[in-house]
């Protein structure tokens, strides 16, 4: 007796792998959803993908506004494996940001911040805890102190003048306001952070723009974090690592130049002659007075996130 087998081609094998992957992922998502307990109202969820389909086809803030009109000011969305709560009223925002602040202060681990911002060791993406509290204190007491803010006022005025002159020169021509303001804020923060030491400022601003595009875009790896191969398959991980390496070279160069100036007795590298942000962070790094010592990686992460925001 002969057995007849269907041809098992490469295509059918790929389909088999895909279906197996989807079944395993569905089991994992289903198990997670059963353990979450009572959740706020929200739109109907598709198997495996949850509410991802609800966000397709429009600007995110418009889509979320329309959904909130139907489901209320506290709405639950399931984005693949990731549960999300959308808050759209002042009352609910107060509950989240003030009344229950510690419960919502955590930050999810995402691929882009983990790679670009030095394993999320900065103050924007760092998980809530003692390290984050110290970073926040440094930001408020040192980086954004009244003295520092006043010392950078001429930079803000100078960059605003350049912005208005640039817009005036394009009279009668369509203007991309987003690009103009991005260039304004990036140049201003670079000057405040690096002082007179950044020969690659324009290159760095271009890198920052590319990083923002990569970090802000949707990637399946962020909504299916348990599938470790997704960032590699999508190509996102490789792009992020490449941009991180380029930025790291520039930041190393700037920090080393600051260290050399300090060694030669020049402690203030800002355009005003005072300390710039790297001077401040290097001073704290070498002081030994912090409960949790900050590292050069911390300094790079803080500077990089400050130029983005």
Automatic annotation (TrEMBL):
The UniProt record lists the keyword Chaperone: no
Matches recorded under InterPro entries: Cyt_P450, Cyt_P450_E_grp-I, Cyt_P450_sf
Residue stretches spanning the membrane: 6-26
Compartments reported by the entry: Membrane
Family annotation (SUPFAM superfamilies): Cytochrome P450
Protein name in the entry: Cytochrome P450
CC per GO annotation: membrane
Similarity section: Belongs to the cytochrome P450 family.
Keywords recorded for this protein, A-Z: Heme, Iron, Membrane, Metal-binding, Monooxygenase, Oxidoreductase, Transmembrane, Transmembrane helix
Taxonomic lineage of the native organism: Eukaryota, Viridiplantae, Streptophyta, Embryophyta, Tracheophyta
Highest taxon of source: Eukaryota
Pfam families reported for this sequence: p450
């Amino acid at each position: 007796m002969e057995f007849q087998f269907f041809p098992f081609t490469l295509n059918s094998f790929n389909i088999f792998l895909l279906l197996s992957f989807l079944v395993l992922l569905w089991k994992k998502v289903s198990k997670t959803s059963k353990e979450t307990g009572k959740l706020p109202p929200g739109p109907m969820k598709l198997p495996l993908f949850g509410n991802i389909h609800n966000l397709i086809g429009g600007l995110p803030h418009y889509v979320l506004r329309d959904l909130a009109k139907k489901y209320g000011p506290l709405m639950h969305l399931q984005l693949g494996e990731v549960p999300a709560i959308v808050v759209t009223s002042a009352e609910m925002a107060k509950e989240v940001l003030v009344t229950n602040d510690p419960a919502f202060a955590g930050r999810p681990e995402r691929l882009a911040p983990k790679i670009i911002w030095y394993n999320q060791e900065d103050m924007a993406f760092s998980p809530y805890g003692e390290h984050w509290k110290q970073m926040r204190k440094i930001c408020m007491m040192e980086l954004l102190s009244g003295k520092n803010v006043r010392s950078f006022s001429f930079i803000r005025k100078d960059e605003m003048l350049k912005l208005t002159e640039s817009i005036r020169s394009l009279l009668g021509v369509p203007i991309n306001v987003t690009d103009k303001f991005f260039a304004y804020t990036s140049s201003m923060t670079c000057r405040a952070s690096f002082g007179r030491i950044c020969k690659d400022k324009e290159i760095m601003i271009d890198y920052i723009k590319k990083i923002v595009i990569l970090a802000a875009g949707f990637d399946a790896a962020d909504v299916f974090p348990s599938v470790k191969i997704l960032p590699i398959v999508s190509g996102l991980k490789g792009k992020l690592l490449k941009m991180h390496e380029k930025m790291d070279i520039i930041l190393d160069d700037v920090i080393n130049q600051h260290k050399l100036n300090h060694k030669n007795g020049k402690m203030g590298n800002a355009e005003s002659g005072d300390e710039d942000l790297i001077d401040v962070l290097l001073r704290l790094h070498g002081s030994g007075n912090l409960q949790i010592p900050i590292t050069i990686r911390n300094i790079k992460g803080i500077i990089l996130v400050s130029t983005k925001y």
